[in-house]
Specification:
- The mean pLDDT is 92.
- Helix 1 crosses helix 7 and helix 3 packs across helix 7.
- Strand 5, helix 10 and strand 6 form a beta-alpha-beta unit.
- The chain has a six-stranded mixed β-sheet with strand order 3-4-5-6-8-7, sandwiched between helices. A two-stranded antiparallel ribbon has the order 1-2.
- It starts with 16 loop residues before the first helix and ends in a 5-residue tail after the last helix.
- 44% of the residues lie in helices and 16% in strands.
- It is of the alpha/beta class and 263 residues long.
- The chain is globular and about 50 Å long.
- It folds into two domains: 151 residues, no CATH class; 88 residues, Trna Endonuclease, Chain: A, domain 1, CATH 3.40.1350.
């Protein structure tokens, strides 16, 4: 049984998503008395994982500096389409070694590969996975983001929010459902496809705004996949119906109400 980090629905009454998103789900980081204490604990965690724990876990010897650089590179492209050759050229190692590294990090519950959905597809689609650093506290430490206000002004803030939402949904996903993403070669994209068997049950767009509009690309994906449910998830907006009958709602409401309805 996998024990995940503390998630949004487990926070005490009155707490909101901000501290959980910024500090991540490790208890010592989330519950630290200050951001500085949280940063110090996460720095120690990152150092111990890279220098000691991963090697012991898998019985292999890593080049510590290369692995740390690899992890930092992953942070800068968090949520992007995976391309092993790009990492290999940047790090001066082979593509198979890069694949080993990401597999070890995934096996250590540090990163998550989100597979593309292309069952019964009639269009040319992206068929490489996306890679996310699972704990956003670790992500923000690797990017040297010191506080929540700095995060909001950082170029990766949108990808960080997307990864946070996806991880929260993974943690609460009802049995029998699986998560994918969908992207055409033309650029239309659905951040999450929630699938039961080979049937897309729901399509989800993730936006870091409380006054969102449904994108044309997302509508194109809805036309391709014909899901039963359509959602756009925001940080704090009310729940209402948008264009193309998309239900716009906040993350807390989606996790506590709508996700349960999909099983």
């Amino acid at each position: 049984m996998e024990l995940t980090g503390i998630g949004l629905t487990e926070l005490p009454a009155g707490d909101d998503y901000r501290i959980n998103w910024f500090r991540g789900g490790f208890p010592n980081a989330l519950l630290a008395g200050s951001d500085a204490e949280s940063r110090e604990w996460l720095n120690n965690l990152i150092r111990s994982y890279v220098e000691r724990d991963l090697g012991h876990l898998f019985g292999v010897t890593f080049d510590v500096s290369t692995l740390r650089n690899f992890w930092s590179m992953l942070a800068h492209v968090n949520g992007n389409i995976w391309n092993a050759e790009t990492f290999a050229r940047s790090l001066g190692i082979s593509a198979p070694t890069v694949l080993r590294y990401v597999s070890f990090l995934e096996g250590g519950y540090l990163v998550r590969r989100l597979a593309p959905w292309f069952v019964n597809a009639k269009k040319r689609l992206i068929k490489s996975p996306k890679v996310y650093i699972r704990d956003t506290g670790i992500l923000h430490r690797l990017l040297n983001i010191s506080d929540y206000d700095t995060l909001l002004g950082h170029p990766v803030v949108g990808a960080s929010w997307e990864g946070y939402v996806i991880e929260q949904i993974f943690q609460r996903l009802p049995q029998g459902l699986e998560l994918y993403f969908y992207r055409t070669q033309a650029g239309a994209e659905c951040d999450l496809v929630i699938v039961q068997g080979i049937t897309p049950m729901a399509c989800v767009e993730i936006k870091l705004t409380n006054a969102p509009s449904v994108s044309r690309g997302f509508i194109s994906c809805l036309e391709d996949l014909q899901p039963k449910f359509k959602y756009l998830i925001t940080p704090e907006s009310d729940t209402y119906s948008g264009s193309a009958d998309v239900t716009i709602t906040n993350l807390q409401q989606f996790l506590s109400v709508f996700l349960k309805q999909l099983s």
